[in-house]
Amino acid sequence: MKFSALVLFTALGSASAFAPVSSPRTFPRGILSSTTVDETETKAEDLPAPPAIKMETPEEAAPAPSMPVAEEKPAAPKTTVPDKSRIQPGRYNDKENSIALPFMKRPPTLDGTHAGDYGFDPLGFTEQYDLYTMQESEIRHGRLAMLAVIGWPLSELLAPEWMLQDGRAPSVLNGFNPVSFLATVAAFGALGFFEYKTSLRRVDDKELGKIHKEDMANVWKWGVPGDYNFDPLNLYSMIGNDAYARKGLRDLEISHGRSAMLGITSFVIWEALTGHPIVENSMFFHPNALLPALVAGYVAFNSFYELDDTDEAFIRFKLSSEGEARMENLKLAMPAAGASGQASEDSVDLAEMAEKAANFFSSLGEKYEQAQNAYLENVVKAETTEEKK
Predict the structure, then answer these.
(1) Same domain, 12 and 140
(2) What whole-number distance in Å separates Cα of residue 339 and Cα of residue 102?
(3) What is the Cα–Cα distance from 183 to 179, expressed in whole angstroms?
(4) 103, 375 contact by CB (below 8 A)
(5) Quick one: which of 119, 139, 221, 237 has the fewest CB in 10 Å?
(6) What are the φ and ψ backbone dihedral angles of 364, each rounded to 5 degrees?
(7) Euclidean distance between the first and the last CA atom of the chain, given in angstroms as a whole number
């Protein structure tokens, strides 16, 4: 009976004794009978040591079902290129100061998401009023200003004298005659009616409105301000048919509109102060040598200097690497030309002028940096004094 007990102990000690099987295990007849044990005498020392019993839970003992192993897909490469199907919010979230005014804090609402957003809001209007409404107002004023900045000088060049006020375009400051007054009232009346009819318009069911709503889905649900579903020449996709390309064209339009608003304001102020039309003795409207000279000077300046686009200063020019090489070549060429007898007083004067210009802009940059440092020191001192109080 000792051998039977050992056999049973060994069978129960194996891991497979607790594993479920597809059919019940059958033992040969008589394997547990006493006659089998009595016929063979075996000492316990001669038997192999029974394996250690490892208790397993049913979950561990049960064989895992054979499941198809899914092939691992390679990880997508990391990229910094934004998804151009939608505008992503928060382009300037990591910048504390404004892009347009680096010495001022960036307004929280102006985070670079929208076209034309460079953080310019010194009076804090974006924190007091609805941003979409203000964007709509700005783009409308910009479009009117672009029309006006062209129509104002054209009227002074082409309109009959009886329509003008001493050669100037009719305006609130320049005055009106009866005919020009009626024409102005009619124009502003038409524009006012258009403003009224479109102030609460819905464009998300139009062709461009649907596109804009998808472009701005990660930003807000209102699409794009200034959308009148107007693009008869299909110019909106001229630089690309994606959200960021469309934003680029909107950025271009708002930049031109802002420049036009400044331009038409300068026209009005100039004529009100001087009493002369803007086209009178103007380099832009009459043949003269001043405009080509300014263009040549602009090209020459950009051949040596470039705008420093760091966030440390608002406007700062620095000598570019190509400009340094051109400056050195110019300095070397002038004495060599003089030694060969080909130099003239004009060439020497040109070299001196170039050197003086370089020194002037270098000193101007240093003075600007000193002024900026002084301003920052005063701000820090004021904040420290305020904290102490």
Answers:
(1) no
(2) 50
(3) 6
(4) yes
(5) 221
(6) -65, -40
(7) 99
What whole-number percentage of the chain has pLDDT above 70? 63
Of 274, 299, 320, the residue that ends a domain is 274
Residue 330: the pLDDT is 77
| CA torsion through residues 267, 137, 87, 235, sign | negative
Report the C-alpha dihedral over residues 178, 179, 183, 189, rounded to 10 degrees. 30
Structure tokens at 227: 């959308």
CA dihedral 114, 119, 122, 123 (to 10 degrees): 30
Q: What is the mean pLDDT of residues 110-125?
A: 89
Contact residues for 304 (Cβ-Cβ < 8 A; gap 6+) = 319, 320, 323, 326, 327, 354, 357, 358
Q: Are residue 310 and residue 384 in the same domain, yes or no?
A: yes
Residue 362 CB contacts under 8 Å (≥ 6 apart), including other chains: 319
By residue range, what is the domain housing residue 199? Answer: 125-274
**Looking at the structure, do residues 250 and 297 belong to the same domain, yes or no?**
no
Residue 178 in domain: yes
Q: How far apart are CA 35 and CA 384, in angstroms?
A: 105
- On the CB side of 269, CA atoms within 13 Å amount to 6
Within the chain, strands assigned E span 305-307, 317-319
Per-residue model confidence (pLDDT) at position 294: 87
* 383 domain-assigned: yes
Residue 308: pLDDT band by 50, 70, 90 thresholds?
confident
DSSP state of 76: P
* Residue 110: DSSP 8-state: -
Quick one: DSSP state of residue 171?
B
Which of residues 298 and 316 earns the better pLDDT score?
Answer: 298
For residue 83, tell me if it sits in a domain. no
Are 141 and 255 within 8 A, CB to CB? no
Listed range (52-56, 308-312, 378-382) with the worst mean pLDDT = 52-56
Round to whole Å and give the CA distance between 295 and 290: 9
pLDDT-derived band of residue 311, with 50, 70 and 90 as boundaries? low
| Alpha-carbon gap, residue 192 to 213, rounded angstroms | 27
What is the tens place of the pLDDT at every residue in 333-347? 766 555 555 545 444
| Average pLDDT, rounded, for the chain | 75
**What element of type H or E holds 361?**
helix 345-388
- Is position 76 within any domain? no
